[in-house]
């Protein structure tokens, strides 16, 4: 395991670089994100975890930063979700953002960069209950998606479709949106009975969506039939803050929680067997950020409010089979 401390900054989100196997972006806030400043941190690490982690770039922000996403067109560019209602675009060699995009009128809580083709689109979600799609080449918002009745906590592009994204909200729903259709969702799922804080798409099947909630559960949904979840995974004792599907296994999901743990699941385990693979307890505060490397099978990063970011290989992580 490799660990580095953020010293007075409480971690909110971590993302491995899509270009480099040894770079990680993190956003962390003073005063747990309630007040004060924040920073975008770029860490360099040894994928074999034999060398110390180094912070190779740090950029301050005057308000909280709650999420980060890398561009998949430029290895030096990422964007962040800011508490002042902006989406900030950064060149990781500079201290100031290269673009400040503002249309949300409350905190921006999540961002994701479009996965496919040559598209340069970012989707954001906010406390103003809106999701917005931005053309970062033009530096402007091109679509606004209304319908949620609560905070939009998570917005994620579908890996198999550059026109489709999912969102989850404090209203308990997950919604599927298509840029080619009207601004109403193509699907609305009553995902949980309480606030739904996170979602992620399967990297292998565009019909599989995973959600995590304040009700402590992780649920797997087949979008072809959403009358009932495909699988429910129980074990967390407090809210599930993020879920992340494995880039190397069709059935492996990681989740992190306010119960200070990260858990690994296999939702294709035979009926009667627990889907829980492993519980990792190496934080002493809420675990907010979580990601899985697309370069190194089984490599996970997380961050928490205890001012620590950890990069590690869980003992029981799913094998790399895609079946």
Q: What descriptive keywords fit this protein?
A:
mainly beta, four-stranded antiparallel sheet, 28 strands
What does this protein structure show overall?
It is a single chain. With 323 residues, this protein is mainly beta. The chain has strands at 2-5, 10-16, 23-29, 38-44, 54-61, 65-70, 77-82, 86-91, 99-102, 108-113, 121-126, 131-135, 140-145, 152-157, 164-169, 174-178, 187-189, 196-201, 208-213, 218-222, 231-233, 240-245, 252-257, 262-266, 276-280, 287-292, 300-304, 308-312. The strands form seven sheets. The chain has a four-stranded antiparallel β-sheet with strand order 1-28-27-26, with no helix packed on it. A four-stranded antiparallel β-sheet has the order 2-3-4-5, with no helix packed on it. A four-stranded antiparallel β-sheet has the order 6-7-8-9, with no helix packed on it. It is globular and about 50 Å long.
